[in-house]
Amino acid sequence: MTASIPLTPAPLSPEDVVAVARHGAKIEISAESSAAMSASRQVIDDLAHDTRPHYGVSTGFGALATKQIPGELRAQLQRSLIRSHAASSGAEVDREIVRGLMLNRLHTMATGRTGVRPEVAQAYAAVLNAGITPVVGEYGSLGCSGDLAPLSHCALAVMGEGKVRNAAGELVDAADALSAAGITPVVLAEKEGLALINGTDGMLGMLLLAAEDLHRLVSTADLAGAMSVEGLLGTDGVFAEDLHALRPQPGQLDSAANMRAVLAGSPLIKEQKDGAHAFTRVQDAYSLRCAPQVHGAVRATLAHAESVAGYELSSAVDNPVVTADGRVESNGNFHGAPVGYVLDFLAIATADLASISERRTDRFLDKARSHGLNAFLADDPGVDSGHMIAQYTQAGIVSELKRLANPASVDSIPSSAMQEDHVSMGWAAGMKLRRSIDGLTRVLAIELLTSARALDMRDGGVATSGSSPVITAVRTAIRQVVEGPGTDRYLAPEIEAVRRLVDDGTLLAAANSAAPAPLI
Q1: Same structural domain for residues 157 and 273?
Q2: pTM of this prediction?
Q3: What's the CATH code of the domain at 165?
Q4: Alpha-carbon gap, residue 54 to 61, rounded angstroms
Q5: CB environment 290-304: b (16+ within 10 A), e (fewer)
Q6: Are residues 46 and 121 in the same domain?
Q7: In 3D, which of 210, 204, 190, 173 has the Cα closest to residue 301?
Q8: 219 CB-near residues (< 8 Å, 6+ apart)
Q9: Do 427 and 142 touch, CB atoms closer than 8 A?
Q10: Domain limits at 187?
Q11: In total, how many domains does the chain have?
């Protein structure tokens, strides 16, 4: 059995967040964190008896912060905050988003900077470990003052209210799910309601999950690009290490290295250099020749986004916050601008990676540019349409991705009677990036499916493959789920079958099984 991931005041790793959010890993709050929470809670308890107002402890919230709340109403104040802020709407967001959201908020509690009692954090950990997932709608966060509505639904569930999905995925009342798991609902004390909803936790979780996906997809794009070069009888000369050393962009160097590795030992490429019909084109088209430059720029963008995520994972985002020397201070660290910007930046990179993939696919289908292949890779052009409409599907997705590349973070809208007059829209940026990544996965799947068909039409199939060892392994994996060329078949299931191979990493694993070293 895998050991639980310990939560300490130290930063979480991106891998730990993905393990809990996506794969259901268990967590355990350390003694160090429990002690830190107890110490900061004492600060809050002392302030609760102070005659001066303290935001979130003895006052209202947001534009209502000027109202002081008497002691006998403060438990109601925290309850009312959560109930009123649990106001999301729209489609239910994915389980992994909610789990990432809860884990990131729990880790901030574990830093001891929020004033939350240890038992509140233990309840969050118990809910996560039991596989209980609060129901959260897609609308409700402006990405400032925290991901308010999404976090409020999570806090509401820990209070034993609202709707959740149990470990079996069934929609049930939170009170019933907690009871079945042996978890006692939490009664919130001073400041605790505010501490549970004041963070960039949802958008950070989406950023970390997106980064995990994009690492796989950019390597898959290198693989797909190399297969297209081979299938279109291009040259690998432009991927030479010394050429890319002239422009030492780190991401570009990595993508060029991957493409060299994928094409190494290719008889088709060798034939273009040395055979009777040696390569006569002076240069390949940009979508082939410039693949490392474009793919590498995506890698560089991802590296920048991960640096921002690293800072966030080292943060304790709350307002007010309990400082190391025992002060309770209001601040603006909950503003999601840093995360929102890079979520938008990744959506731009994702759209462009899909765009260059679609252009490579289109070259296979045009008889004037495919270098000897049937029009649209059809078995009998005119009777059959081949992959004509697969490219339409790609084009529709790429067009959608270009619209999704329009940044959410430039669109602030004021709220809370102009108290919260500039917001990040980081949650919206995260949601649209997830849709972009899904689209990119489908576009790459169609390129791989198309290039595999083209290569089969050139050399008669995997059994007589003229491809490199790496590409032969990938073609073999594709042929496990999709038949080779022939008359037109129902195409949608074949696209979906290859999409799954891209999504679960099967095609990268096939490539790595034949490569001298794993693709970067």
Answers
A1: no
A2: 0.95
A3: 1.10.275.10
A4: 11
A5: bbbbbbbbbbebbee
A6: yes
A7: 210
A8: 258, 508, 519, 520
A9: yes
A10: 5-199
A11: 2
Residue 490 appears among annotated catalytic residues:
no
Q: What distances in angstroms separate CA 316 from CA 126, 143, 148, 201, one per listed residue? A: 21, 16, 16, 10
DSSP 244-258: HHTS--HHHHHHHHH
Report whether 221 contacts 444 (CB < 8 A): yes
User: For 354-411, how does the pLDDT look when each residue is reduced to its tens digit (9 = 90+)?
Assistant: 999 999 999 999 999 999 999 999 999 999 999 999 999 999 999 999 999 999 999 9
Q: What is the pLDDT of residues 134-182, one digit of tens each?
A: 999 999 999 888 899 999 999 999 999 999 999 999 999 999 999 999 9
DSSP alpha helix (H) spans, 264-383: 267-274, 286-289, 291-313, 337-365
Pairing of strands 137-139, 27-29: unpaired
Average pLDDT, the chain: 94
Whether residue 191 is found in the same domain as residue 242: no
Token pair listed for 442: 């489908």
| Alpha helices (H) along 368-408 | 388-404
Q: 55, 124, 286, 341: which is the annotated catalytic residue?
A: 55
DSSP bridge partners of 322: 328
Return d(Cα 108, Cα 36) in angstroms, integer.
Answer: 11
**CATH code of the domain in which 254 resides:** 1.20.200.10
In a domain, 406, yes or no: yes
Length of the chain equals 520
Residue with tokens 């797909």: 224
Residue 182 lies in a domain: yes
- pLDDT given at position 2: 61
What pLDDT does residue 415 have?
86
131 in any annotated domain: yes
Q: In which element (H, E) is residue 367 found?
A: none
Average pLDDT over residues 299-318: 96
Q: Is residue 30 assigned to a domain?
A: yes
User: Token pair of 204, please?
Assistant: 């950070």
Give residue 424's region: left, alpha or beta (phi > 0; psi -120 to 50): alpha
The tokens of 253 are what?
A: 């160097």
Tell which residue, 38, 86, 83, 81, has the closest CA to residue 56: 81
Q: Are residues 194 and 211 located together in one domain of the fold? A: no
Q: Let me know whether 152 and 280 are in one domain.
A: no
User: Is there a contact between 59 and 193 (Cβ–Cβ < 8 Å)?
Assistant: no
